[in-house]
Amino acid sequence: MEPHFTDILQCPLTHSDLTWLDAEQVAQLNAEIARGDLYHLDGTPARKPLGQAFASADGKLIYPVEEDIIILLPFLALTGDQEIVWSYGQSLRVEKQAIMDFYDQVGWKEEGDQFYDGARFEDLRPVTQDYLRRCHLRVNRYLPGKGTYLLDAASGPVQYPEYLTYSENYDYRICADISFRALKQAKKNVGGKGIYLLCDVTNLPLKDNTMDGIVSLHTIYHVPADEQAGAVRELYRTLKAGQTGVVVYSWGPHSFLMNLLMVPYFLLKRLLRKGTEAEASELFFHHHKPAWFRKEIQRQCHARLAVWRSVSVAFLRRVIHEKALGRQLLTLIYTLENALPGFFGRVGAYPMFTLNKPEVKVDAPIEVPGSRWEAMLEPEDFRVFENRPCQREKREHLRLHASAGVGRISRTLL
Ligand SMILES: C[S@@+](CC[C@H](N)C(=O)[O-])C[C@H]1O[C@@H](n2cnc3c(N)ncnc32)[C@H](O)[C@@H]1O
Predict the structure, then answer these.
(1) Residue 243: CB within 6 Å of ligand 1?
(2) Structure confidence by residue, pLDDT tens digits, 203-240
(3) How far apart are CA 274 and CA 282, in angstroms?
(4) Cα-to-centroid distance, 177 and ligand 1 (Å)
(5) pLDDT at position 372
(6) Domain match, 81 and 101 both
(7) pLDDT tens digits for 95-116?
(8) How far is the CA of 157 from the centre of ligand 1 (A)?
(9) Exposed, middle or buried, 23 (CB in 10 Å: 0-12/13-18/19+)?
(10) Helices (H) and strands (E) in the chain, counts
């Protein structure tokens, strides 16, 4: 049966609608696979018979569905047309391939009641539990409380129980991740409410303005440095006007507060000659500085900074101990964060970027001079996709969607 959510999906390569294939079409494709006539876009021949599948609007690109997970990574798409294989010539960037391999093979392996990722990169001791739980729940304050679709961009397995609260009042939670193993685990945790997409957050297979809320936690800093801003803007593209998305990022070595608080620790270590080199990590990451947020994200995505958690894992492990009033110290830190969220978002370890897509009301016809629409557009003929006020020029730049396509105009601010 055709999934009810087909209308929000788009082909990651052509950006066209996706069409659900019926049993007869799938049988034809399986015959092509058996003859060795169907290829992945990375040039390898397709071997596995299809159960269910989607196709791009022209029918030339096929996206399989395996175990209820829709495979929407371009290099895994199938085609029978060699010219398409040559023209797209897709493969995954090495950094992304490394992340995918890590999470498929190691990161989402279960270790007792945790995953390797949590056990290795988080501080899960009882003394920190209450603080971590409250930081996870803090995300809810910035999310729209309810809606149809909540996008969890790079969801992983939805590993902590608090993560489930984000989609409590949503009809569906879209779990999107580059790791198949993550999505198989997410299916266990989210169940029937989930829609599972194997995809790349830098090129989401979702149409513009379709998500009622978005979370993306601890992921953007695992994206190659030059694609991180694009990934955040990609989230913003899929957000409905008037709604909010939350990105949890990490300033890593650029956190002013962590550098300040850890100085005595490092000095002491150096004094005792214990060495202070950073631990090598098996996982790719790149932390931008706060200036990157101001330049690349803030204005483009109507974003604000707030704190998710101001202390790093290294700080927790080294400074917070049950016998050294660790719980009390964390309660104090949490209270301070609540009092000054913007400040701690800027200087602390993990900021939240809240993306706020404005609702633009256009109640009169707009003239679109010099664009592909020569005529006046009536308000009901288009939706505003993005608006960027520019106070200096006293102009507002709008990006519009109309039946005729997408276009840009600017108009003078009143
Ligand atoms: C540190 S884990 C965080 C998972 C989850 N958001 C959480 O907070 O527990 C990073 C996740 O991002 C996914 N990921 C990394 N790069 C990605 C990309 N380019 N597209 C989609 N998922 C990606 C990984 O597969 C992994 O599941």
Answers:
(1) no
(2) 999 999 999 999 999 999 999 999 999 999 999 999 99
(3) 23
(4) 6
(5) 47
(6) no
(7) 999 999 999 999 999 988 899 9
(8) 9
(9) exposed
(10) 12, 20
C-alpha pair distances (Å), 203 with each of 230, 233, 241? 9, 10, 20
Residues found in the chain: 414
Q: How many domains are there within the chain?
A: 3
Q: Which of 355, 292, 367 is nearest to 139 (CA)?
A: 355
Helix (H, G, I), strand (E, B) or coil at 79: strand
Cβ–ligand 1 contact at 41 (below 6 Å):
no
Does any ligand 1 atom lie closer than 6 A to the CB of residue 222? yes
* Residue where one domain finishes, among candidates 310, 337, 356: 356
Identify which of 135, 177, 133 has the alpha carbon closest to the alpha carbon of residue 154.
Answer: 177
- Asked if 398 and 390 touch (Cβ cutoff 8 Å), the reply is no
**Same domain, residue pair 185 and 49:** no
At residue 373 the predicted structure's pLDDT band, cuts being 50, 70 and 90, is very low
* 101 three-state secondary structure: helix
Q: Is 386 in the pocket of ligand 1 (CB under 6 A)?
A: no
Task: Please tell me whether residue 174 adopts helix, strand or coil conformation.
Answer: strand
Q: Residue 139 Cα, ligand 1 centroid: separation in angstroms?
A: 17
Q: Are 68 and 187 in contact (CB under 8 A)?
A: yes
- Residues 213 and 298 grouped into a single domain: yes
Q: Is 361 part of a structural domain of the chain?
A: no
**138 and 180 belong to one structural domain:** yes
If asked whether residues 286 and 350 sit together in one domain, one would say: yes
292 Cα to the center of ligand 1, angstroms: 21
The H-or-E segment that residue 35 falls in is helix 23-35
Domain housing 386: 366-412
Q: Specify if 23 maps to a domain.
A: yes
Q: Give pTM, 2 decimals.
A: 0.87
* CA 245 to ligand 1 centroid distance, Å: 16
Helix (H) or strand (E) holding 263: helix 256-271
Give the pLDDT mean for 267-278: 65
Q: Is the distance from the beta carbon of residue 197 to the nearest atom of ligand 1 less than 6 Å?
A: no
Mean of pLDDT over the chain: 88
Pocket test for ligand 1, best of 116, 219, 221, 284 (most atoms within 8 A of CB): 219
Gap from CA of 146 to ligand 1 centroid (Å) = 24
